[in-house]
Amino acid sequence: MCKYIFIAVNYNGAGFTIDYIQSINNLSLNGNEEIKIIIIDNNSEKNDLKIIEKFTKISINVKLIKLSDNQGYFKGLNKGIKIVEKDKNTSLIIGNNDLTFDKNFILNLKKINYDNNVMVLAPNIITKEGRQQNPHVIDSVSFVEKFKSQLYFSNYYIGQIFRFINQHIKRVYRNPPVSKNNYKQMKIKRGIGACYILTPNFTKKFGKLDDRVFLWGEEALLSNQIESVGGITLYDPSLVVRHHESASVALIQSKARYHIAKKSYKIYKKYL
């Protein structure tokens, strides 16, 4: 029997988490799959946590893990990964709680044939505006993008000026809200961090994700982790996931967000 274990982190996002669970429980199956859901709560406010607790109590395939402090994204996910019994038939679908899975997600996942070096599958993540977020990085990050990151994190106020200019350019030269790519299944450098499928090849090599950052930069750490053992990330457009984008991150105030991101940047910048 194939086992599919969905692991997500919640932080004051009970509504998104409930929708996430319902989306998984509405997936089409062909009868020989086992579906489990693990929700890691990163020390949400009491009212938010109560909503999750009430809902998960009536959901027989959902396990709720409550943390006493906010440990961040990958550290939170690792709490779920740690307790999972992993074997050659187990795939871990990890990510945000603000996701809605296409009804055929599991059926399409079962159809994918991949080599032993494929450790991560990157799904076709689509925003509510219709923008496709994968492939996130196909070959490598350009010199220009690296320089922009270096400039942005050199100083908070410089970063805000730079951000303002970027937003102004986007408003003036706004692309149509729906932008579709025509990429077929392909090897990529990294997928966007909202959702990954960790294959049995990953869990055979690693017991956990590289969780040295609290938030932001996880994509670079994960790609470095799998490349360190000759592994690859495979993008597959048939694995459709709808993304509501940064539901928890939106709760963080901008200056605090900048300094969290800057701290992470110091760790992951050498892997860009």
Give me the secondary-structure topology:
Elements lengths: L1 E9 L3 H12 L7 E9 L4 H12 L4 E5 L6 H11 L6 E6 L3 E3 L3 H7 L6 E10 L15 H10 L3 H17 L13 E3 L6 E4 L1 H6 L12 H10 L4 E12 L10 H15 L4
Parallel strand pairs: 1-2, 1-4, 2-3, 6-9
Antiparallel strand pairs: 4-8, 5-9, 6-8, 7-9
Helix pairs in contact: 1-2
Hey, roughly how much beta strand do the residues contain? 15-25%
Question: Which structural class do the helices and strands define?
Answer: alpha/beta
Described by the principal axes of the CA atoms, the overall outline is: globular
Mean pLDDT: 89
Major sheet: size, sense and barrel closure?
Answer: 9 strands, mixed
Number of strands: 9
Order of helices and strands: EHEHEHEEHEHHEEHHEH
Task: State the low-pLDDT regions, or none.
Answer: none
Structure description:
Strands 1, 2, 3, 4, 5, 6, 7, 8 and 9 form a 9-stranded mixed β-sheet that branches. The longest helix is centred in the middle third of the chain and has 17 residues, at 156-172. With 272 residues, this protein is an alpha/beta fold. α1 links the parallel β1 and β2. It has 9 helices and 9 strands. It has helices spanning 14-25, 46-57, 73-83, 105-111, 143-152, 156-172, 200-205, 218-227, 254-268, and strands at residues 2-10, 33-41, 62-66, 90-95, 99-101, 118-127, 186-188, 195-198, 232-243. The mean pLDDT is 89.
